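pinging the channel bc i need a second pair of eyes. not urgent but kinda urgent?? the chain im working w is below, pasted from the shared doc
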Amino acid sequence: MGISQVQIDQFLTSYAAALTELDAEAGAELWSMPGVIADDRFTVVIETRAAMVTGLKQSYRLYQKLGLGSVTEKLVLAHVHWNFLDTHGDLSTAPPTT
């Protein structure tokens, strides 16, 4: 059972509303716990919903200083396909060749 496009759209709409309203409690409810935030500079694991609320509130202060008024529906979704390679660098999910 996968996630439908409608469910994805509903989630992103809810997340955008929480961000636009700077509603940390509503935003935190949209995260599973533990939450993981990662970018190319750091990764952090947030263990509890209360810690997520605190973290979101801290980020909202920055957004306010930057003048955030709202967010747009211009979200990009990416479909990612991972190739698993064996220790020789060969595709391990490929059928064996004879």
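so Strands lie at 35-38, 43-46. and The CA atoms of residues 24 and 56 lie 5 Å apart. — does that match what u expected or am i reading it wrong
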